Amino acid sequence: MHIDLRNYEKKSILILTFILINASCTAQIDEGKSESTGIKEGKPNIYTSLIAGRWYDSSPEKLKKEIESLFSEATNAPLENVIALILPHAGYAYSGKTAVKGIKSIGSKQYHRVIILGTSHRAPIENMVSIPTDVDFYETPLGKIPIDKEAINVISKSPYFKNIPIANLGEHSVEIELPLLQYSKQDFKLVPIVCGKLDFETTKKVANTLKKIIDENTLVIASSDFTHYGNNYGYKPFTDNIPDNLKKYDMGAYEYIEKKDLRGFYEYLDTTGITICGPYGIGVILSLLPTDIKVNLIDYTRSGDLTGDYNNSVSYLSIAITGTWEKGELGTMDTSSTLTPQEKRDLLKLARWTLEYVLDKGKLPSDSELPILLTDKMKEPGAVFVTLKIADDLRGCIGEIFATKPLYKSVIQNAYNAGFKDPRFFPITKDELKKIKIEISLLTPPRKINHYNEIELGKHGIILKKGYHQALFLPQVAPEQNWDLHQTLQHLSMKAGLLPDAYKEDAEFEVFEAEVFHED
């Protein structure tokens, strides 16, 4: 499966966008009634594979037999000191043999930590990666794998590591590798990571964070298929000698991997448009690698080799990297989410300028036209709501609870959404813009609480979940309305389509905080 992550912005407002629905700045959350969380209730939190029964058999016996057959057919000899792998992630019938050859190259070596760098097929996220901070075990039909909570806690301090549930849920690029590792008798703790689109500098920052949890007993896996060719994938750079040209394109990418040339690899992606669906996990590995390593191509196949049809074909490589990791240091990072007064003024300026730009030119601006100097903090991932008011009356308010893009882009997108896409209002006009005051709320990631009595009004934003019903209040809602806790939760229940007292039983709560600033 392939999605062109480089064009993700066209789809960005379709996922994880939250619309405020009245003057008290409430937000209705709609994550889709058909979506299962995959997390079993109770403690510990166990994430149960959502791809079992689709990408591989849900029967433990049948799955074990299928994998056993793949391992018995893989006759390649093990290598010494494998520290990283690049493996395909299609269904086992297509890429299983290639993936297993890669795993078999590690031989009998045992790892206490496995980091899997998947790719986001579901959520269009930019310059960040997603990690599950609220899960204790991943479960496949072959059993439970403990999450490395200590490592997750360390890397979650980085602003580039976020918990984005829609990116984690059912991400086959991570889950497809797990039964293969379990069958190979690996006894490890797991660090599952889903990569969004990463530019060169952010790739290096993600890698530098991971270096804090990598040691000689760590295996890093980038999960990626290579060229997706044909009309099914919207990619046909050639029509003649397809098998030969596919190999030429794939080996062209491999040459940059072999040279550990991250910049060259990313430039190759841009110049060829090659449809590698996990390039940024590969990029992170290239950024991690020490000098004294060797890259080994273990296997290369294409789905066309199996089906005889190259008109729509996906390429699969397994690559093993041997050597020794440089010693990492498990520790914490000093990070701050606070914006400077100047950054706040500039972001408010950016929001207003965006509205003026769209009113004048009828489209969103490009990065080259921005009227402010972007700071490092503005380039970090950020989730914001943008609120527009005329006097004390709401004129538009839209935002997102989970960061999916850099902070400055979130401000641009949600200023545009609040001004022109809020379904409760007509688009704003030039005359109205003169009267509008802009407020921005920069949100922290939500966290679960055990009971609603833990909510601190005025400090906490609140997410209520009960069955398929969900709703959200920003932190400023209750103080603005002079509500106490029970009044707040009654109104939140009603916004979720429930009875006023529905929050009292069988409801789940998450809280977050917000850094709120507005025009004078």
Explain the overall architecture.
It is a single chain. This protein folds into two domains: 219 residues, Hypothetical protein ph0010, domain 1 (Glycoprotein, Type 4 Pilin, 2-Layer Sandwich); 236 residues, 3-Layer(aba) Sandwich (Protocatechuate 4,5-dioxygenase, Chain B), CATH 3.40.830.10. The N terminus is likely disordered. It is α+β, with helices and mostly antiparallel strands. The chain has 17 helices and 23 strands. Helix 1 crosses helix 2. The longest helix has 21 residues.
Mean pLDDT: 89
Q: In terms of per-residue confidence, which ranges show pLDDT below 50 for 5 or more consecutive residues?
A: 1-37
Order of strands in the sheet with most strands: 19-22-20-21-2-1-17-16-18-23
CATH architecture of the largest domain: 3-Layer(aba) Sandwich
Major pleated sheet: 10 strands, antiparallel
- Total beta strands: 23
Amino- and carboxy-terminal Cα gap: 49 Å
Number of helical regions: 17
Structural class: alpha+beta
- CATH-wise, what's the superfamily of the largest domain? LigB-like
What is the CA-atom radius of gyration, in angstroms? 24 Å
User: What's the shape?
Assistant: globular
The name CATH uses for the topology of the largest domain is Protocatechuate 4,5-dioxygenase, Chain B
Oligomer: single chain
Q: How many structural units, i.e. domains?
A: 2
Give the fraction of residues assigned to helices: 25-40%
Using the coordinates above, name the CATH class of the largest domain.
Alpha Beta
Instruction: Tell me the β content.
Output: 15-25%
